[in-house]
């Protein structure tokens, strides 16, 4: 009989140990902190607090427009609609869209804006001021012009009063020493002109900018042309 009582006591002790062991395991599992896994969509942080997010992995460089200053180098899509072209250049020139009427002219400019400057160049890889003017007149007005700024200056009816300038007239500058004519652009509207500048390539500038105001020489118009000739063809 004593043996049975002894076995019963051992059994109860074993059960007590088992229950205590299970409770400890459950408590540990319940109260042990869970380390949070890093998310694959978390931002990656680099120097200067720049973040890169997974949804931004596709580059937007090809669709961005580039700008230097207020009227600086800008690249645009040549497939823009006529209305879009008018809105775009109306903003640049600070005029109404209805005043952007020579679509051939502004589409040509739209295609070339941002093209780098290259002395002696005459294509999309690089172009200089007189070659740009020559190509613009060839393609927009179907008029062939001299290749140099000085040569153009010599064959023009000169316009001394800037108030008399109209769209399509040439504007001449002496940017070197003395009064030697060495730069040319095409006048647009509201004192803006388009040019191939040595520093920014094909760009739209304003005659009131200090540099161009200082170096302006004269305007020029092809002899025996009138406003209808320059309205676009």
Automatic annotation (TrEMBL):
Range of residues in the leader sequence: 1-28
The entry's keywords: Hydrolase, Protease, Signal, Thiol protease
Residue ranges of every copy of the NlpC/P60 domain listed in the record: 99-223
One Pfam family hit: NLPC_P60
Keyword Secreted: no
InterPro entries: Murein_DD/LD_carboxypeptidase, NLP_P60_dom, Papain-like_cys_pep_sf
A single GO BP: proteolysis
Example GO molecular function: cysteine-type peptidase activity
Listed PROSITE patterns: NLPC_P60 (PS51935), PROKAR_LIPOPROTEIN (PS51257)
Family under the similarity heading: Belongs to the peptidase C40 family.
Protein name as catalogued: NlpC/P60 family protein
Organism encoding this protein: Thermoflavifilum thermophilum
